[in-house]
Amino acid sequence: MTSTTRGDIAATLVHIYRGGATPALESALRKYVARAAESLPRFDGSLAIVLDASASTRGYGEREFACISQSAALSMTLGAAAAKSRVVRTGGAGDPPSPAGATDLASALLEALEGAPDLVAIITDGYENAVEGDLDRVVAAVRDAGIATPIVLCHSKFTDKDDLSQRRPTSRAPELEF
Fold first, then answer.
1. How many CB atoms lie within 10 A of CB 128?
2. pLDDT in tens, 89-112
């Protein structure tokens, strides 16, 4: 298992992160995202994606760029399969986002909910370091305020053996590990 054995989209993103974007890589990326999105059911609603591109998503060693490439790949594919989508990023810079900065999932969730989406997908490695526990408190407050928008935590892993017990920023949303 390596950073480049996680599907065409993620592998292409790893190459972009490691060596910079080229027209050939950008073209391949668009093609792979379109192909993946076509294989998914169409979501006719409005999707808000909270993308964690903070420094922790970079990884290191054999895991370098695995998390951010998987997370960006999922974000791109879900966005392409939705009738309307918007990405709210926490951390990172550029497009695709290079990992940098802290993880403020709570503020990003509040921003994502401003557009009254039909669904919010939070794509993260689970390290919440701006204010630990903040996402859980904000999800509770959102529910207490009567906002019923479904929120799903999409949790990136390097392998199926990753221990996520210390990387669950909320227990108040269904979780999908990928």
1. 25
2. 999 999 999 999 999 999 999 999
The Cα–Cα gap between 127 and 52 comes to 9
Residue pair 105/90 in contact (Cβ under 8 Å)? The answer is yes
Q: Is the pLDDT of residue 1 over 60?
A: no
- Taking the model in full, what pTM does it have? 0.92
Q: How many structural domains comprise the chain?
A: 1
Q: Is 140 contained in some domain?
A: yes
Q: What CATH number does residue 49 fall under?
A: 3.40.50
pLDDT (average), residues 23-33: 97
Out of 4-13, 36-45, 79-88, 113-122, least confident range: 4-13
Residue 2 lies in a domain: no
- 123 exposed, middle or buried (CB, 10 Å; 0-12, 13-18, 19+)? buried
CB neighbour class for 29 (10 Å; exposed up to 12, middle 13-18, buried from 19): buried
DSSP3 helix / strand / coil % (the chain, rounded to 5): 40, 20, 40
